[in-house]
Amino acid sequence: MNGHGTLQRRRRHVALAGVTLALALLLAAATTGEPGSAQAPLVLKIATRAPFGSPEALHVEAFAHHIARSGSGLVEVRRFYDGALGEPAALLERVAEGTLQAVSVDLSDLARRSPAAEVLTAPGVFRDRRAALRALQRGLPDALGAMLEREGLVLGGFGRVDMEVWFSRARFEKPAAARGWRMAQPASEAERGLSEALGAQLLEVGLAQAPPMDDASGIELLSATPIAAVAAGLDRGASHVQLSDHALSASVFIYSKRWFEGLPEQLRKQLSPLPASIFEDARAAEMAMRDEILAALRARGVSVHAPGRAERRRFDRLYRSQSLARARATRPDGSRLLRAARGR
Q1: What does the DSSP 8-state code read for residue 161?
Q2: What is the DSSP letter of 275?
Q3: How far apart are CA 217 and CA 130, in angstroms?
Q4: For residue range 254-298, what is the model confidence (pLDDT) as tens digits?
Q5: How far apart are CA 245 and CA 126, in angstroms?
Q6: Thinking of the domain 3-341, which architecture would CATH place it in?
Q7: Least buried of 17, 36, 54, 240, by fewest C-beta within 10 Å?
């Protein structure tokens, strides 16, 4: 059994693994109501661009299970996947207006509406996933929540939490090595700042249209989570993966402030802040997917390595400068978020 075949099967079964867990959560949620209740349930509609069975969708299912269980059947959660109600920008606008109760979006999508949130996805803000998880449960929700409230939004909590790594054609052990390497057009100012600081050659198309690394004119360097890279086929042609964990990739649950403030106090407490414990199974499944993908890449002959101390130091200075630049560009909220993320 070769590594390439294993990885192809992994692509086919990523969604299946997610669907299996999601359906289990869905069936569990269906048994938690109170039959015979005369009171009509409160409807909570939550929408996401993520397809059913994806890591983000697993967290939406965990959220629905939590609400169904803690709400004693008084809340009916209706999930809309795969952009059924629109793209993230439109969904966030509807939530702010109060015509949609809740949304699950990537932090990067939230940042297009609330630019200061992009600080959280800048490189070097979190040392690793453990540090990110700790910050997302402590001081950071208060800082981000206060910012969103001014925009008619209420922060529920964070769902999936993963970290981006480097995929490259050649070994990427120091920032200077990337000078002249081809990268896709950045999707954010944080990505643009990092690619320009590396001296990369930017293609005229975004990542969705960029040729993969096995194309002669394709990208040569990519920052992405292993799950996202393999799901999109962007790992093809990569010879090296540096497990840098340099940038956060996460989803966030957001409610309509107008809708939220009209809820009973007890229900508001169940909705915000969302306890991290409700996402334990979904996060474990996501990390299992990541580990299997990395194992399949190794079996295919890809060099997968974690940077040593000296190698990490060479990148840390670059990462710090980029996170500080984004915080300054989005002051005062960006600076507050960066301080909260670093526990200051």
Answers
A1: E
A2: P
A3: 37
A4: 999 999 999 989 899 999 999 999 999 999 999 999 999 999 999
A5: 9
A6: 3-Layer(aba) Sandwich (3.40)
A7: 36
